[in-house]
Amino acid sequence: MTATKGLEGIVATTSSISSIVDGVLTYRGYDIDDLAEHASFEEVAYLLWFGKLPTADELKSLRKSLSDYAPIPSELIAQIKLYPKHISTMAALRSAVSALALYDEQADEMTEAANENKAVKLQAQLPTIVAAISRIRKGQEPVAPKEGASIAENFLYMMTGEEPSETAVKALDQALVLHADHELNASTFAARVTVATLSDIYSGVTSAIGALKGPLHGGANEAVMKMLDEIGTPDRLEAAIQEKLNNREKIMGFGHRVYKNGDPRAKHLQKMSKELGEMNNDTRLYEMSVKIEEIVTGQKGLKPNVDFYSASVYTQLKIDQELFTPIFAISRVSGWTAHILEQLADNRIIRPRAEYTGPTDQKYVSIDLR
Ligand SMILES: CC(=O)SCCNC(=O)CCNC(=O)[C@H](O)C(C)(C)COP(=O)(O)OP(=O)(O)OC[C@H]1O[C@@H](n2cnc3c(N)ncnc32)[C@H](O)[C@@H]1OP(=O)(O)O
Ligand SMILES: O=C([O-])CC(=O)C(=O)O
């Protein structure tokens, strides 16, 4: 038995949800470029769960279910108010999603229909939870979801209590489409491992949120913004990045386990970042990001991943840094739950082996002789 560090290159399951072949990402066979251009996030969620694009009636019915399920239990809001203020929003989200299961009588029901229903519920309720966490941390009351609004519109509305602009809704919707699924990434793998024990879907999503939180995965988008803030002004950029590279520090938002020649989602986020900057008459963040890309790609050959330009996109949409990774979760929960449904449809417990590297032939020594 020989272990492969980080399971690089190991094919651990079959899946018909998304694929990455020669740098091209597809959801259920549809190129991400095509979906980013034309599909709404709700259509994409339907596609991931049910394997086909919805008809107009199917989409209408999904939108209604998402809207009906969007309110969260008042007991959960009361709990969130008790969370300490110093914890990260991802820690709060992880706890809140785990607690959400306590208020769902269907939580442990393992039929396919019950799990599909819970997938829709989780998708509907994650945005409400994230917006509530954000407002409560600022000492504000949560805003109830707006009936009939899309996930993107509703999230922006619940975050501020104000009607978002059409531009902001469109940009966030496209970002959600781009983040929805990504084959066997770390958080999706965590979700599949959890439910493969026949544990429930809430446990699977809670595991996934825990995995997404780390800065090597979804947490990188927040780390990118921290780096841009630390650098502050374009005149300091070159020296600051060079220093990081000289110190062999990782530049957040660059590199990827699977893409070695560039992430196909980054160009969409880069374009969005540029357009939002031009619209706001302030392209500073976009220009700084482009300059960082020039330096890092030039010197290390590393390309930006999905997290890099999303940082400047979200900031230009006036979204707080601490919500960047939770927004990733709002999108990726569609993929996580699609993978959970796929795992459960043909389940086998996931239990690989470890190559033992510790001492052998040890003899027990009584405590007084150690
Ligand atoms: C949604 C997502 O999860 S996308 C990824 C988000 N994460 C980040 O942006 C964090 C920064 N990036 C990274 O840490 C890595 O590139 C990962 C975690 C994405 C991929 O990790 P791995 O596949 O294990 O790549 P690995 O760490 O082996 O990198 C190969 C080499 O490139 C270097 N490298 C990789 N990423 C970076 C980076 N962002 N900055 C500087 N150097 C890097 C490594 O140090 C390593 O160099 P070495 O061979 O001299 O030791
Ligand atoms: O696939 C990965 O390793 C990371 C990820 O989730 C993504 O890029 O969207």
UniProtKB/TrEMBL annotation:
The keyword Acyltransferase applies. GO terms for biological process: carbohydrate metabolic process; tricarboxylic acid cycle. GO terms for molecular function: citrate synthase activity. The keyword Transferase applies. Keywords: Acyltransferase, Transferase, Tricarboxylic acid cycle. It catalyses: oxaloacetate + acetyl-CoA + H2O = citrate + CoA + H(+). InterPro entries: 2-MeCitrate/Citrate_synth_II, Citrate_synth-like_lrg_a-sub, Citrate_synth-like_sm_a-sub, Citrate_synthase, Citrate_synthase_AS, Citrate_synthase_bac-typ, Citrate_synthase_sf. GO terms for cellular component: cytosol. Pfam families: Citrate_synt. It comes from the Bacteria. The active site is at H256, D307. Pathway: Carbohydrate metabolism; tricarboxylic acid cycle; isocitrate from oxaloacetate: step 1/2. SUPFAM superfamilies: Citrate synthase (SSF48256). Belongs to the citrate synthase family. This is Citrate synthase. It comes from Paenibacillus amylolyticus. The lineage of its organism: Bacteria, Bacillati, Bacillota, Bacilli, Bacillales.
